């Protein structure tokens, strides 16, 4: 729903004419097919300049295979204003084999996990967020709901226990085959499936499931937790969190939610590589692309043109940094906006806020970032090549059991040993050893060991 | 062969080609299309033996031998996925064949034309649905919470609900029935077309001889459609290492616990490729599947040739 | 030529008595049993589809809280309202799909038949070579990327309607070989001999005799091509970057994927409310997707009933 893309493009061109003289062509690709399409563009060598990528879209792998241009030198030469507008952890965390291949968006760079709870029921039964010291304490709430609200399931349970796991362990390379303990914050790679706190989480899931606190079909249903919440089926679910997540989710589900934080913000390589703009290897003039990036991080006008379109046409200013839709226009029929994906571009702290958003949003983000514990392994990127086949085999084994165990559908006394044994047979130890080896080498090179 | 014989053979080859020059004209568009759509991209098969990086480009990337194939065999499930793929395909080919022919023959006996058209259309209907939708329908039937079977069949009978999605042993039946339900109309249409093509004079002669319906089927219908049966079966054998991704991915709702009876080569590879976009590996899988199918078709075709040369594929 | 025209007249004449007189029918009880069997099987096929239709008209919350039901407690048009909120894209996509389907089916059928005919001729010396040439493509392919490069770089048909017609869909070796077998078994070799004596050219034989005599298989393959074009979303996804020329199924698939993405991804569209009934929308899209194509089926089915009269040729 962006029929005005050409209009915005020409407005941007006009604006940039005297600055860096470029013609901008915006290419919107749907999220649903984003990975397919961009992979194809890259592998077939199509010509383009700049694209969005991220760790979960294979940023490190693509960079290692030479799909993106290394930008250290370009940054030094043509991006003088970027360093001022981008927290240093980002440049640290986005390096692959010591070289920078993309610029992360400046936004929240830490993650926490939180339980989102229906406010009406919380008030009704007098639940207090302070009572929650660990996830085990949810049991009391769930029990009350189960006993008093027969039509409501206390906990969605779909992918929720992974949040609990993620609050305790730092994944390396996006999987659980060798992780770091967040509590210890050291550089020792451990096997989570043999860690007591991991088993504890699964046992809790199993107990909740058997007590009827988790949606029965949690392991197979295709309905998401947000939908269950929206339709009044569940009392709570968990999310990877950031400031204002309760407001965001209240908006999407149409249900008033309260956020119960589970842990302190923590920053890992994965958190700083969630949104990256990378220059394609096929770009004809990477220097000029870097000049454009330089403006994207420092020039408020340019960023907001890309984020929100043309002033007066697609938005109106309420005050310096607060905007709203013009008369008669809503988010459903506005002819241009980055469709809620503003976070992928440049310096988000320069982006205008909508009138219905928390005017302190960016201040909250900054405070959140400042409070974050930085992982010792920040900036370490694992090269999976030596153990690719083992990872594939383990992934398959993991998929076989994970949903069943995380939702409590499966008896962990029977299936967890089975899973652990099969993972071992498929080379789990080899992966852990390789991760440890690369991590040690990296630490040594960084002078951290 | 003497030189003059060779020359004569060449002459007759040339003569034949000239005599059928219009046939070549008919072959031309299809041939060009196959070259463009299939044979040109086939040079990409070398990617299966390369460790592709984009600094060097595809052609200059280093060779990697059979490295790209290894991941298929390095898992403890290698045997399971191969077994599942082959057994399901054999089952689908055999049962599908018998049922399609049976339906086609019976349909041909329905005298009322309106009924016949209606039955035929209705049978074909499930083919219109995508496996994504079929997956949801199966879930509506079997889910533990609202499933039709558990709540409206087993419960009234006083039986314990069955957690279908937690036990792999049910799935060979569920997948087979689902697949037949969706695709049987397709096979029936083909065999119906074949049966309609049988010359009616044969049946008239059989009628005069007083042959029973069964005899007519055995000595007229079946032999007449045999060439179609043989060719379709040969073609299906060629794809025996390819599983229907839609069926095996969507219908079990990618439930991991069902892997022992639902994981096939294509779904296994898909799960890995989601996290690893490696064209070397995906090309290698395709090549492996094709090569096995090719060998099998070659053997089967050789066998068919020995029995009846006319029916062979090539 | 003369001969061919005569054939067609005889064909018409032969049809009439067949309808009235059926000496070779099964016994009454057997006939009844067959009908009962088909009625049951028809129900088995249609009831699930009826469920799809009903769910598409059910209230979303009812579906989420009590599952799929033939007799839902609350009906709703929300799914269709959501999909047709802006009807223009759907109408346009219908147009694109119909255009690509008609063009692709007609051309594809012709090219396929033209290829299948020569290799069905036993007197054609190179039949095995070309059969193998076609068969080989059924198994081996170079993978997505080289194939994509051929079409997008060398043919340069990206973002055109041709991209919905040409790549992969136009002709399939499977149907070539199937059709070859039909031609070889249903068309008597004598026809070619008599045609040769008459001096009718090969092309005439093909167009005036082989095709009319093979209507059932032409209809079968035509139906399959039609469905294949109708159901295709992949070519749109790969080759098209312009919403004006995407196929209906791609529009549907994309809507679905985007809904899923929004639901599963915490950082997407943070400000957008989940204002779509995703469960029922899925079913509504299936209904919209199969609706019109169902009416194409009887068109092809006609040729199954009238059809072959090879007997008349020989007579």
UniProtKB/TrEMBL annotation, chain B:
Highest taxon of the lineage: Bacteria
Q: Which UniProt keywords apply?
A: Cell membrane, Membrane, Transmembrane, Transmembrane helix, Transport
Where would you say this protein principally sits, based on its record?
Answer: membrane
Against Pfam families, the record matches this protein to: BPD_transp_1 (PF00528)
List localization entries.
Answer: Cell membrane
- Give the matching Gene3D superfamilies: MetI-like
Ranges for the ABC transmembrane type-1 domain?
A: 82-300
Topology in membrane: Multi-pass membrane protein
| Name of protein | ABC transporter permease subunit
Native species of this protein? Cohnella ginsengisoli
UniProtKB/TrEMBL annotation, chain C:
GO CC list: plasma membrane
Localization (cell)? Cell membrane
Q: What does the record list as GO biological process? A: transmembrane transport
Keywords, in A-Z order: Cell membrane, Membrane, Transmembrane, Transmembrane helix, Transport
TM ranges: 32-57, 93-117, 129-149, 161-183, 203-227, 283-300
Q: Which family does it belong to?
A: Belongs to the binding-protein-dependent transport system permease family.
The residue ranges of the ABC transmembrane type-1 domain are: 94-300
Q: What organism is recorded for this protein?
A: Cohnella ginsengisoli
Protein's recorded name: Carbohydrate ABC transporter permease
Q: How does it sit in the membrane?
A: Multi-pass membrane protein
Read off the lineage from the record. Bacteria, Bacillati, Bacillota, Bacilli, Bacillales
């Amino acid at each position: 729903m962006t029929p005005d893309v050409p209009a915005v493009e020409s407005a941007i061109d006009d604006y940039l004419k005297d600055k860096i003289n470029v013609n901008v062509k915006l290419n919107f690709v749907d999220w649903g097919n984003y990975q397919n399409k961009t992979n194809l563009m890259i592998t077939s060598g199509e010509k383009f300049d700049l694209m969005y990528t991220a760790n979960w879209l294979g940023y490190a792998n693509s960079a290692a295979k030479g799909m993106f241009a290394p930008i250290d030198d370009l940054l030094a030469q043509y991006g003088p204003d970027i360093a001022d507008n981008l927290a240093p952890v980002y440049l640290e965390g986005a390096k692959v084999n010591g070289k920078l291949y993309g610029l992360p968006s400046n936004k929240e760079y830490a993650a926490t996990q939180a339980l989102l709870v229906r406010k009406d029921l919380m008030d009704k039964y007098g639940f207090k967020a302070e009572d929650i010291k660990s996830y085990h304490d949810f049991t009391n709430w769930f029990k009350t709901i189960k006993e008093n609200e027969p039509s409501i399931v206390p906990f969605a349970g779909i992918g929720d226990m992974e949040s609990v796991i993620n609050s305790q362990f730092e994944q390396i390379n996006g999987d659980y085959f060798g992780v770091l303990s967040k509590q210890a914050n050291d550089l020792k790679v451990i096997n989570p499936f043999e860690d007591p706190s991991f088993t504890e989480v699964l046992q809790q899931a199993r107990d909740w499931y058997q007590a009827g606190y988790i949606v029965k079909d949690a392991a197979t249903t295709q309905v998401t937790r947000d939908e269950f919440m929206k339709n009044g089926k569940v009392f709570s679910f968990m999310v990877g969190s950031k400031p204002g997540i309760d407001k965001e989710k209240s908006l999407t589900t149409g249900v008033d939610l309260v956020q119960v934080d589970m842990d302190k913000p923590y920053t890992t390589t994965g958190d700083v590589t969630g949104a990256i703009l990378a220059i394609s290897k096929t770009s004809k003039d990477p220097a000029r692309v870097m000049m454009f990036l330089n403006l994207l991080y420092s020039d408020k006008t340019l960023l907001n043109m890309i984020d929100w379109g043309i002033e007066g046409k697609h938005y109106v200013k309420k005050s310096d940094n607060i905007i709203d839709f013009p008369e008669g226009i809503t988010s459903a029929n506005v002819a241009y906006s980055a469709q809620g994906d503003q976070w992928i571009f440049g310096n988000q702290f320069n982006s205008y806020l909508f009138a219905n958003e928390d005017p302190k949003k960016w201040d909250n983000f900054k405070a959140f970032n400042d409070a974050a514990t930085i992982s010792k392994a920040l900036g370490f990127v694992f090269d999976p090549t030596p153990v690719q086949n083992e990872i594939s085999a383990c992934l398959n084994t993991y998929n076989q059991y994970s949903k069943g165990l995380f939702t409590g559908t499966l008896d962990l006394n029977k299936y967890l040993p089975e899973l652990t044994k099969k993972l071992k047979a498929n080379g789990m130890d080899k992966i852990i050893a390789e991760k440890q080896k690369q991590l040690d080498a990296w630490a040594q090179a960084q002078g951290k060991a | 062969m003497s030189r003059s014989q060779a020359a004569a053979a060449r002459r007759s080859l040339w003569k034949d080609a000239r005599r059928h020059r219009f046939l070549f004209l008919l072959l031309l568009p299809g041939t060009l299309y196959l070259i463009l759509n299939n044979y040109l991209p086939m040079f990409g098969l070398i990617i299966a033996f390369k460790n592709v990086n984009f600094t060097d480009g595809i052609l200059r990337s280093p060779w990697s031998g059979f490295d790209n194939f290894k991941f298929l065999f390095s898992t403890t499930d290698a045997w399971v996925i191969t077994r599942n793929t082959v057994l399901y395909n054999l089952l689908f080919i055999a049962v599908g064949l018998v049922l399609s022919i049976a339906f086609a023959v019976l349909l041909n006996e329905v005298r009322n034309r309106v009924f016949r058209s209606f039955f035929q259309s209705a049978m074909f209907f499930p083919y219109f649905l995508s496996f994504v939708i079929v997956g949801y329908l199966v879930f509506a039937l079997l889910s533990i919470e609202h499933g039709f079977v558990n709540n409206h069949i087993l419960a009234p009978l006083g039986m314990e609900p069955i957690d279908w999605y937690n036990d792999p042993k049910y799935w060979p039946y569920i997948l087979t029935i689902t697949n037949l339900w969706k695709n049987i109309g397709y096979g029936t249409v083909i065999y119906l077309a074949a049966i309609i093509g049988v010359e009616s004079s044969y049946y008239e002669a059989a009628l005069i001889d007083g042959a029973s319906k069964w005899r007519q089927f055995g000595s007229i219908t079946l032999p007449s459609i045999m060439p179609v049966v043989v060719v379709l079966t040969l073609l299906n054998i060629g794809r025996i290492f390819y599983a229907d991704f839609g069926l095996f991915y969507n219908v079990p709702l990618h439930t991991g616990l069902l892997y022992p009876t639902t994981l096939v080569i294509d779904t296994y590879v898909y799960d890995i490729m989601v996290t690893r976009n490696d064209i070397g590996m995906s090309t290698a899988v395709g090549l492996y599947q094709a090569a096995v199918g090719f060998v099998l078709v070659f053997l089967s075709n050789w066998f068919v040739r020995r029995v009846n040369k006319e029916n062979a594929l090539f | 030529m003369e001969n061919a025209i005569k054939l067609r007249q005889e064909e018409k004449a032969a049809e009439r008595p067949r309808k009235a007189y059926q000496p070779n029918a099964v016994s009454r009880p057997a006939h009844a049993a067959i009908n009962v069997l088909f009625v049951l099987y028809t129900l088995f096929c249609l009831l699930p589809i009826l469920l799809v239709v009903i769910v598409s008209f059910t209230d979303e919350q009812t579906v989420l809280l009590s599952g799929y039901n033939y007799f839902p407690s609350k009906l709703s048009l929300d799914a269709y309202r959501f999909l047709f909120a802006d009807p223009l894209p759907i109408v346009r996509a219908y147009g694109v799909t119909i255009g690509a389907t008609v063009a692709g089916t007609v051309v594809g059928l012709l090219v396929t038949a033209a290829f299948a005919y020569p290799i069905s001729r036993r007197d054609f010396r190179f039949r095995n070579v070309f059969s193998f040439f076609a068969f080989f493509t059924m198994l081996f392919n170079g993978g997505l990327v080289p194939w994509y490069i051929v079409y997008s770089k060398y043919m340069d048909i990206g973002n055109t309607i041709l991209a919905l017609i040409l790549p992969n869909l136009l002709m399939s070796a499977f149907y070539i070989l199937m059709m070859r077998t039909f031609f070889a078994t249903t068309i008597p070799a004598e026809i070619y001999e008599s045609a040769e004596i008459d001096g009718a050219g090969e092309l005439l034989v093909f167009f005036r005799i082989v095709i009319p005599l093979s209507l059932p298989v032409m209809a079968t393959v035509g139906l399959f091509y039609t469905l294949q074009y109708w159901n295709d979303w992949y070519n749109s996804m790969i080759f098209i970057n312009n919403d004006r020329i995407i196929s209906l199924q791609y529009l549907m698939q994309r809507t679905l994927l985007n809904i899923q993405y929004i639901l599963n991804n915490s950082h997407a569209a943070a400000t957008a409310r989940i204002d779509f009934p995703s469960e029922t929308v899925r079913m509504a899209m299936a209904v919209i997707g199969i609706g019109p194509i169902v009416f194409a089926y009887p068109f092809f089915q006609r040729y199954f009933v009238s059809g072959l009269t090879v007997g008349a040729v020989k007579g």
